[in-house]
Design a protein that fits this description.
Blueprint (H helix, E strand, L loop, with lengths): L1 H49 L3 H7 L6 H10 L1
Helix pairs in contact: 1-2
Length: about 80
């Protein structure tokens, strides 16, 4: 009986640790995305004030293939 209780404690502790790590990863990813968007917004405002095309700023922050950025790059050449 003692071994079974010890085993259950290890299982519960392991599941708790895995849950904490998973939640931490999700929260940090979310906060990183929010921070990235806030920086992009500030840079767009600065670009507009300087007369720089805001789409170029948006494309600088693109992390995936973005059709708008591809068209913008083709037109820029």
């Amino acid at each position: 009986m003692e071994n079974q209780n010890s085993y259950m404690k290890v299982v519960i502790t392991s599941l708790a640790c895995i849950t904490i790590v998973a939640v931490s990863i999700i929260i940090s990813s979310y906060l990183s995305n929010i921070n990235d968007r806030n920086n992009m917004s500030k840079n767009m405002d600065s670009a507009i004030q300087r007369g720089i095309d805001p789409i170029s700023v948006k494309c600088a922050y693109a992390t995936q293939t973005d059709n708008l950025c591809m068209v913008y790059a083709l037109k820029a050449k």
